[in-house]
Amino acid sequence: MDRYFWNISGPKGDGLACVVCGVSFLDVRITSVAVGRNPADESEVFACKTPCAVVLAEDAERMAQEMRAAAGLDDADVPDGDPVFCVDGHFGSLLRDLRTLAGTEALLTTSDDLVTIRFLLSLTARHAETAMMRARLVLARTKAPDTKEGDG
Question: ∠ at Cα 87 (82, 92), nearest 5°?
């Protein structure tokens, strides 16, 4: 999970205490779940499964709704009942894959570290494959009903 919890230290920052309520996982038997990372060292941080992780999830959903509203996307209804073109639909995902591919292309032109190049190539392969599948899906879903397979 890539959510960063800033301004934590001690047991919370070491993953030994809940980042929300501060209960020590060493002293109290409670189920904990990973909820993010400590930006100081990229180590995982944890929260009590209930109620703290639930509170974090609800807070994240509330913030996402506020961001969608601020961006004018809160009423981004699905056009004509087809989820292909909505923000979270296949077309939006295709655009994100294409942006990732453009970014990896830019990074590949500047990198000379073999480990980084291998990582970027694996990222390229994954996003190229999903972009291809999503493009085919969008094409199929947007094909005119009277168009034959080779016409279009």
Answer: 95
Would you give the DSSP letter of residue 46?
A: E
Least Cα distance to 101 among 119, 128, 135 occurs for 128
- CA-derived radius of gyration, the chain: 22
Helix, strand, coil in percent for the chain, rounding step 5: 55, 10, 35
- Give CA–CA dist 92/104, Å, rounded: 19
Q: Could you tell me the pTM of the whole model?
A: 0.47
Structure tokens at 70: 């601020």
Please, what are the averages of pLDDT over each run of 10 residues along the chain (152 residues)?
84 93 93 92 92 90 81 55 65 84 88 88 88 85 65 52
Query: What's the pLDDT score for residue 77?
Result: 45
Q: Which one-letter DSSP state was computed for residue 129?
A: H
